[in-house]
Amino acid sequence: MIGVEISYEDRSRQVRDAAEKAGFENFRHAASVIRKRAMSLMRKRKGASPPGEPPHTHTRRLPKAIVFWADAYGAVIGPAFSLSGGVGGAHEHGGEFRGRQYDERPFMFPALLAMAGQFQASWRGSIGA
Question: pLDDT tens digits, residue range 32-45?
Answer without folding.
Answer: 989 999 999 999 88
